[in-house]
Amino acid sequence: QKEVEQDPGPLSVPEGAIVSLNCTYSNSAFQYFMWYRQYSRKGPELLMYTYSSGNKEDGRFTAQVDKSSKYISLFIRDSQPSDSATYLCAMANQAGTALIFGKGTTLSVSS
Amino acid sequence: ETGVTQSPTHLIKTRGQQVTLRCSSQSGHNTVSWYQQALGQGPQFIFQYYREEENGRGNFPPRFSGLQFPNYSSELNVNALELDDSALYLCASSLEGTPGTTEAFFGQGTRLTVV
Q1: Distance from CA of A92 to the nearest CA of B (A)
Q2: What is the distance in angstroms between the CA of the first residue and the CA of the last residue of chain B?
Q3: Which residue of B59, B108, B111, B112 is the best one to mutate when testing the A interface, meaning the one whose CB has the most A CBs within 10 A?
Q4: Which residue among B103, B107, B109 sits closest to A49, beta carbon to beta carbon?
Q5: Residues in contact with B1: Cβ distance below 8 Å, sequence separation at least 6, in sequence order
Q6: Where are the alpha helices (DSSP H) in chain B?
Q7: Closest CA to A74 of A35, A30, A31
Q8: How far is B105 from chain A, CA to nearest CA, in Å?
Q9: Cis preceding linkage at B62, omega within 30
Q10: Using one digit for the tens of pLDDT, what is the confidence trace for B52-95?
């Protein structure tokens, strides 16, 4: 079992839809959780950074962490064609030097 | 855009050759990490440099090596290139040695093709 599991999709939605992206993980030591957006042939761009459990909101984006279920989510409200990209979840523990990434979910938002 | 810059953006090498990739970290950041991203996969951690010392290493062979300079820029060197080394190589900079505890910002990557 991989440390971080993420459904690669692809996920296709119409403009204006609410998008839900998810990752599960197996390492209970993870405390830091991130979502990155990666456009084709570009580097990952940090979208959300959260510590431990709970919710964090930034504009149209909401990140949720449920450590008891080892499950994290990213919600995108009022999705736009410009949101079409690959979304990567990443995690780290207190002592670790590495970010552990999921495979990424490819999202396509059609106008 | 982040302040992390990588060079070159693309290159093509022949199997068995050696390659050097470069990264300039974001201003004020003293930690640089390198990742390999194969097509359709998430980035995989290669190693991290913190204040010019290697501070952690992933599951990569010794032919992957690196350096960090006093200005915190960094190099990734790969010897004896293999076809499977073809990937996007990403550099990430962060403020301290444990990137999970602070935000890590990525450059645009270097796409390496080994033929």
Answers
A1: 5
A2: 32
A3: B108
A4: B103
A5: none
A6: none
A7: A35
A8: 7
A9: no
A10: 999 889 999 999 999 999 999 999 999 999 999 999 999 999 88
